[in-house]
């Protein structure tokens, strides 16, 4: 699958799975607009991608807890392009600790704001560019923690709250944007192995039925959903937890 004419926005792409997405989409020919809370982190990923001879990649700073920063990110992308074909909501602060009292009030606010409010405002600010596309898709990396009744993670209650908010937002957004041709796709992975896409481990990490989910498989799910004909609205990917 090639994505040479796709313009893709990815939040929180300075490290971990966001970086993986940015590298893989660039390798497939997409023009990538990636953000990180700090511009330096985003620029490091851009440099890695350009080292692979992909020049159509752009770095932005975006703090998902700051509405003005989100608006600036969208405005910055709009100065480069008149449309976005795919928005990937990857950003959401991780907060560990099954004890509600273990986190400070500031950590709780930051976690819920980045995952919940940050996702809503990112979609809101990029929606005009998405509506300019003839194949607009919104992908949100939720988490198994956003699934009703899930309790197997050591994530803090605030993280569960943020992910539940993302799930609810994606559910109503899917209904309301379908008449405009926008597909809203959510992924609900449990903990997964995120091998470096620039290392040999990317292709050698086991992907058998008894193995943990891999980032390689998650990227394949996103590509599968995006690659379907426009009458195919895949709402969500849910995964068994090993």
Describe the structure.
The two termini are 29 Å apart. This protein is of the alpha/beta class and 242 residues long. The mean pLDDT is 97. Helices cover 41% and strands 14% of the residues. Strand 2 (31-36), helix 2 (39-50) and strand 3 form a beta-alpha-beta unit. The protein has helices at 16-27, 39-50, 67-78, 105-131, 157-177, 201-204, 215-226; strands at 7-10, 31-36, 57-61, 86-89, 137-141, 183-188, 236-238. It has a seven-stranded parallel β-sheet, sandwiched between helices.
Give the structure's gist in a few sentences.
By secondary structure, the protein is an alpha/beta fold. It is 41% helix and 14% strand.
* Succession of helices and strands: EHEHEHEHEHEHHE
The gyration radius over C-alpha positions equals 17 Å
Low-confidence stretches: none
Beta-strand percent range: 5-15%
Roughly what percent helix? 40-55%
SSE class? alpha/beta
User: Major β-sheet, in short?
Assistant: 7 strands, parallel
Measured between the Cα atoms of the first and last residue, the distance is 29 Å
Question: Please, how many helices?
Answer: 7
How many strand elements? 7
Overall 3D shape: globular
Mean pLDDT: 97
Q: In order across it, which strands form the biggest sheet?
A: 3-2-1-4-5-6-7
């Amino acid at each position: 699958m090639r994505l040479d004419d796709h313009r893709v926005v990815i939040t929180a792409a300075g490290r971990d799975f966001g970086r993986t997405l940015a590298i893989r989409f660039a390798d497939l020919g997409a023009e990538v607009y990636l953000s990180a809370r700090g511009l330096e982190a985003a620029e490091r990923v851009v440099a890695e991608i350009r080292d692979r001879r992909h020049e159509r990649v752009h770095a932005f700073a975006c703090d998902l807890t700051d509405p003005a920063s989100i608006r600036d990110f969208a405005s910055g992308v709009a100065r480069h392009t008149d449309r976005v074909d795919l928005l990937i909501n990857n950003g959401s602060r991780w907060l560990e600790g099954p004890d509600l009292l273990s986190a400070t009030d500031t950590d709780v606010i930051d976690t819920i704001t980045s995952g919940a409010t940050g996702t809503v405002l990112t979609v809101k600010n990029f929606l005009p560019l998405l509506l300019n596309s003839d194949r607009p898709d919104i992908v949100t990396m939720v988490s198994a923690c956003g699934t009703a009744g899930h309790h197997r993670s050591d994530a803090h209650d605030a993280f569960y709250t943020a992910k539940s908010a993302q799930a609810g937002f994606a559910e109503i957004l899917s209904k309301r944007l379908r008449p405009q041709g926008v597909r809203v796709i959510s992924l609900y992975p449990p903990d997964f192995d995120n091998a470096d896409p620039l290392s040999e481990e990317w292709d050698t990490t086991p992907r058998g039925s008894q193995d943990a989910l891999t980032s390689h498989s998650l990227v394949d799910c996103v590509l599968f959903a995006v690659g379907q004909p426009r009458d195919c609205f895949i709402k969500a990917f849910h995964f068994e937890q090993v």
